[in-house]
Automatic annotation (TrEMBL):
Lineage of the species this protein comes from: Bacteria, Pseudomonadati, Pseudomonadota, Alphaproteobacteria, Geminicoccales
Name of the protein: Inositol monophosphatase family protein
One Pfam match: DUF4170
InterPro entries: DUF4170
Organism: Arboricoccus pini
């Protein structure tokens, strides 16, 4: 069995297409949390393609496993 590497897919409307600053963080579309990158990529691709005509909407994949595995300060 392979190691679980959690990934989060979410998106929303950007203030500007040149940044990743969202207009309203309360209105973010949380697509889901996935057990591996391949499944997260499929979900991201579906959302990105569905919003391709909306220049101010962007979806991203966050590697949650990297945040969870990061060393903690004492």
């Amino acid at each position: 069995m392979s190691k679980q590497l959690l990934h989060l897919v979410f998106g929303g409307e950007l203030k500007s297409p040149e940044t990743l600053e969202f207009v309203d963080t309360k209105a973010l579309d949380i697509v889901g949390i996935y057990p591996n990158y391949d499944e997260a990529l499929k979900a991201w691709r579906a959302k990105a393609q569905a919003t391709v005509d909306q220049a101010h909407v962007r979806y991203v994949v966050v590697h949650l496993h990297r945040l969870l595995d990061a060393p903690r300060e004492s």
